[in-house]
Amino acid sequence: MNLDALYSELTLKTNAKLALVVLDGLGDIATKEQNYLTPLEAASTPNLDKIAKDSAQGRMIPIAPGITPGSGPGHLGLFGYDPLEFQVGRGVIEALGLGLELKPGDVCARANFATVDGKGIVTDRRAGRIPTETCEKLCAMLAGKIKKIGDTDILIKAGKEHRFVVVFRGKGLEGPLTDADPNREGFAIPNVKPRDENNAGQKKMAALIADFYKAAVPIIAKEKPANGFLMRGIAHQPHIPLFEERYKLKPACLAVYPMYKGLAQLVGMKKIEGPATIAEQFERYLKEYDNFDFFFIHYKYTDKAGEDGNFMAKMKAIEDFDAALPILLREKPDVLAITGDHSTPCAVKGHSWHAQPVLLYSALSGSDKLERFTETGANSGSLGVFEAKYLIRLMQANAKMFDKFGA
Amino acid sequence: MNLDALYSELTLKTNAKLALVVLDGLGDIATKEQNYLTPLEAASTPNLDKIAKDSAQGRMIPIAPGITPGSGPGHLGLFGYDPLEFQVGRGVIEALGLGLELKPGDVCARANFATVDGKGIVTDRRAGRIPTETCEKLCAMLAGKIKKIGDTDILIKAGKEHRFVVVFRGKGLEGPLTDADPNREGFAIPNVKPRDENNAGQKKMAALIADFYKAAVPIIAKEKPANGFLMRGIAHQPHIPLFEERYKLKPACLAVYPMYKGLAQLVGMKKIEGPATIAEQFERYLKEYDNFDFFFIHYKYTDKAGEDGNFMAKMKAIEDFDAALPILLREKPDVLAITGDHSTPCAVKGHSWHAQPVLLYSALSGSDKLERFTETGANSGSLGVFEAKYLIRLMQANAKMFDKFGA
User: Fold this and answer.
1) What residue ranges define each of the domains in chain A, with the CATH number in brackets?
2) Which of A16, B215, B255, B322 has the fewest CB atoms within 10 Å around its CB?
3) Residues A203, A192: Cα–Cα separation, whole Å
4) What is the reported pTM?
């Protein structure tokens, strides 16, 4: 039997409130250089400590052993969607990161401005990394003249330096396509092709990309150095079952960064705009308490510090989070999970495959008799080491949302 | 999406050196009789202790919960091949154990000399367990007269007591076949049959076995008590993806016993001949350091002692290993895994299903803050309890050999 189908069948609607609090990139590794402590272990966390004693802990494998996830797969896993089954194209993630609101069926492409010579040969794949302002100017030129191709709406949005995103919103469009990118200098830009020759939506989309090139190239042909562009990761927003239907929970997203709002929106969470700090996010949670059943609260700064390899900054980010936590606890959710979407160890200076620690707090979580929430403590927690996609099922179970299986 | 395909897609070639050190049958269980210590816990292991502090630990399920593996599946798992997907016939394992070098397509059978009466009824399936010397003499008689059947080369090699192996090297041969063995005394030897009636290679092979019987039986018909023989586990060497292509690692095998050299060779590792002790194996590792990326180093004596139920001998084998370890550490591999292929608990006097402890040491393994490498410590390691087939993926991750999955 399909496990997701079983979960669905057993799911009961209740009045429980669930909160999934994600400290991005929370997990870390203990090293000799840092006196065998992780930032979470080195931080002073009196408020986390208070709930730790009454919580269960464990560690979560974001995707599969050894696999380092990007933010997309990391969050899909936390939302309970198998990241190997529900893959989100890079164009879509990039569009979400730029704050574009996508609709089902939208096809997105990440694009680079590039330098092309008189014969169409790419001489610089990044057009000398033009300043962001130049990119914005060029995107405005393109967007001003290309609003529609046939019955398809075209949205163009500038990113940082040479990067931008193009969204195709029309009927019967599908990805993925091959890239319009030779992947190295000295070659012409190849035409895109359907990944599946028999897919009508991909064929239509490939023709549309060709038309887009025809319309766009003349507009920037005399610019220097960005007189051309490459397009990659061309894919449509995947069909993802709606969170509310899948879990019988009405979900809200309290995130500050566009990427995470976008990922939440992909599964149908309601974006709540406004809060800019974790304290404001928790305050808003209190205000919205009666309006939703499930709150996804995202905190970015642990990941940022990890990416910088800045141990003290990551420790401080955790302490700042801890200081705000009592606001959330004023009206405790029935089930509270605190974790990361992956590890971002300072020693790695980037995302990693290491299992992130997770704390699960509810009247029924049981106590693992741990005085603190740490990676080392989590190793001996009652939840063990498990795949992140099951966290939401444990949260539902703790909310008494599952009927008994069998008699 | 298929996970192996994903791993392949994400794999990057690097300059990292990886070493997988297998203490055969390392895992054990603590019992009251031994003062609640395992041999690994009772042993003095100052050198393992030194690296334990900077390592991650966990326990590995060789195949699946409760399944006790033979050496074949145990090692295939360690090499990252799902032992349920890649099954190696017993004939092949037996041939490898006798030091036969197999080629792709070879079909192997394990055989027993037996006693047969005038009516063809098996009266002793092991011919009274004839001495090994008699077996060698009989095999030489057979090998002297049967070198080829049609265009198929026949290799015959004696094992211990009544056991021997026959290898069929020809074109278009396949297994598996049913056994030429009534499985009990008092019955005639059945003809072999293809397991799949529609498989041409199996049909050809079944005819070949019948021809082999016709040629061989008259040669030994007047011997006593071994005037007949049974054949079992008739199968071809399975098609296994080459290690080097699968992992982008150039692998070498430093083993002493033929079985393990053979298993390494099955996946395409280069056998390095010469070393006869663990110290010599480590010395040779130092010499070959620049020539390979991956070293499989196999140590047999822990398993031997476990099979004998000899606690003190297993403890001593671990101490001998530990004493040699500093040689390896003179030129530390970037990623070092130390584990067993399964447990061989002294109380079991044989292989078992108990999860074996594993230690993973690299600049990015993180420290589990454990002062020693033991079964009990490994229970609270950050790697948790996982299937052995994932170890190599964790080793690759620690060697930074995987690109990020998704954006």
Assistant:
1) 14-86+240-398 (3.40.720.10), 92-236 (3.30.70)
2) B215
3) 10
4) 0.91
